[in-house]
Fold this protein.
Amino acid sequence: MHSKRKLAYLAFAKKGLIEMMPLNLAVIPWGILCGSLAIQRGFTTLEALLMPMLVYAGAVQLVVIELINNNTPLLTILLTAFIISSRHFLYGLALRTKLTPQPANWRVPLGFLLTDELFALSSHRKSYQGKLQLVYALFAGGSFYLNWLFWNIIGIIAGSSLPDLTELGLDFAIAVTFIALIVPSIINLSRLITVCVAGVLSTVLTLWQWDYALVISALVAMLCGYITTNISIRLRKSSKKRIANSDI
Amino acid sequence: MTLLTILLLATITFLTRYLFLHPKLPIKIGDKMESFLSFSSPAVLTAIWVPIVFIRDHQLDIAPSNPYLIGATIAVITAKLTRSVYLTLIISSTIFALVKLYMH
């Protein structure tokens, strides 16, 4: 039925918009900050606009604006951007089985839109499988992109008339939103261990100022979760064997 | 020059996001790898938020007066109880803002 399909598409599009909304709200101050910081550090309006439009990465934008302002050599800037962005490799790897089989005209734009926030919404079993899920992801990711662009533009317009926004504790909103997404997903011991290891290790490595703190702590945490799952599977198998043997 | 830098940066961010999604890459993901990767979401997102809460000015801040700590604790409890991203965000951010205000 043609209209039933359209209604389904509409429903999933709406779902994408609604579920991305908290993250859209959380990054408002960051968008404004990126836009206004670029202007304050002497970027032209075009350059300040192209950052969110093409680079589309808040952490990279903020750090790089300062690096460019300090006349840091190009190679250092690119290397820093690479380090900050390296966690996205993990996202691509994690979504490969689901997203890679999809047609390129979905896969490439969704790949472009694959920020932390879209990844946070991608952990459903059925994500990216079938048109409805792709529509969901497009609207979720697309709304985040447009939202990011919009607030960067607001920041650009406000320009120098804003005080230094970095001391307001705006990063808290990101932390809370991620907490809100992760905590309900901790449904077993493996995931609990993953989260604890990730948190502790990431804090330690960040204090030690390791470049790859995020990626390393994530990988180690994933390993711990994986090992825990295996151990509990093995324990369950051996206890089943014992029960089976004791029936003889 | 800045324009060139921006274009190169855009290439980097896009590559990190898209590279492993490209079908022509000779990477096969078996069951074990799939299981391992299934932990990537809680791992990475936690690795991002925990330092935000516990680190201030490159130092560990576990004082009970740390507004981030208070806010995050409320957030964990609220998230566990309500399972609502909106409620958790509003309640925790409000408490965070209040604590921060009163700390001055």
Summary: Chain B is about 70% helix and 5% strand.
